Amino acid sequence: MKVAIIAVAVIATLAAGFIFAAGPEPHIVIPGDPLWEVGPLTITSTLMASWFTMLVLIVLALVLTRGLTMIPSGKQNFVEASVGFLLDQMEEIAGREHGRRFFMVIATFFLFILMGNWLGLLPFFKAIGITHDYGTEVFEDITHQFEEGEPFHDDHHYFAWEMENTGGVALAKSGADTFKFDIHEGDDPGAALDAYIVALAEFFTDYEAPEHEGEEHHYSAEDVQAALAALEADPDAPKFVEGEGVVSPALGVSFAEIEFPGTKLAMVYPFLRAAFSDLSNTLGMAVAAFIFIQFWGFQSLGFGYLGKFFINPLKNPIMTFVGFLELLSEFIRVISFSFRLFGNIFAGSVLLLILTFLAPFIAPLGIYALEMFVGLIQAVVFSLLLLVFAIGAVTGHDDHDEEHGEGHGHGEGAEPHHQPQALQAH
Amino acid sequence: MGSWMTPVAYLLGAGWYFATCIILGVVIGRWADSATGLEPTFTLIGIVLGLAVAAVGGYRMLLPLIRRLDDEPRE
Question: Does residue B11 fall inside a structural domain?
Answer without folding.
Answer: no
